[in-house]
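Exercise 3.2. Students should predict the tertiary structure of the chain below and write it as structure tokens, then compare their answer with the key that follows.

Predict this chain's 3D structure.
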Amino acid sequence: SDDDLVPMGWFVLLAVGLFGILGWVVFQTNMGDSESDLIDVKIANQLLGRDLDRPKGAEAEESEREAAEVHFNKMEKVMTEFLSAESLEEMIKWVRHPERVAPLMESYYARNPIEPLVFRATKKYHSISLENKPFIALEVRVEEKEKGIPILIEDRPDGMLVDWESFVCYLPMSPEDLAKSRPTELMGLRVYAQRDNFYTYEFSDESEFDCFRLNFRGSETTLYGFVKKGTTLEREFLKAFPLEGDESQKAAIIKARFLEESKATRSMLIEGLESTRWAFPHNPQEVSGNESDAVDAD
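Answer key:
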């Protein structure tokens, strides 16, 4: 129904003013579900009532409303153009980090057809901060699909751009081909990961490795990743995947490879944790050093 679509203007203002950080990873993990941690209109309207109780000059209120509406319209124009693109050349105009991402898009669309979509409406919306950069997490409706589509936009001073990599959940090859060909070169993989106990063959020593079950969006393929204990990398994984408490799967970008002539056919050695979400807040090609809070050069 149309009553749960985002109201123009005020929702944008509320989302920016009344909410803090929303973990984009949560939305990604639940992206196939009907429930989402993005704020829907009913909640926004309740908060709007509270906001209107605060004293504010009519002129300032109108100015904020107009600015929010302009911002919202610009966002929906970007959505419309990005989703309706029929070629890589059209699509890349609306994509973050185009120089780095263009080869990835060429590789992806050599394997998958471009699907132009007709944008209908923004269903849910949330302004978020990822490593001190402003983003907008969205759920949008399109003509061709019943379920909402999650999209992440960087809200840049010079215009909004879509995070294409998290939109398609980019992988260098399909999960099925990955499991079949078992490449030994290091690959960046967007996965759902959670702690597991699948110790076997080269990875049978529980005192040497931490085990993680790896799943992929839209695929039944399951692989297992192993992190060497006592390493800096294990400490990074301990922060993201504590031994106690939350046992749910989490989105991550890992660096992993199969071992040569390994008997553990579904097991990979994990050699890096690139991100604890499916998007890079900063362009990895332009960030010097390994500091996660380095400033993006673009």
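Discussion points: The CA atoms of residues 9 and 69 lie 4 Å apart. The chain is about 30% helix and 25% strand.
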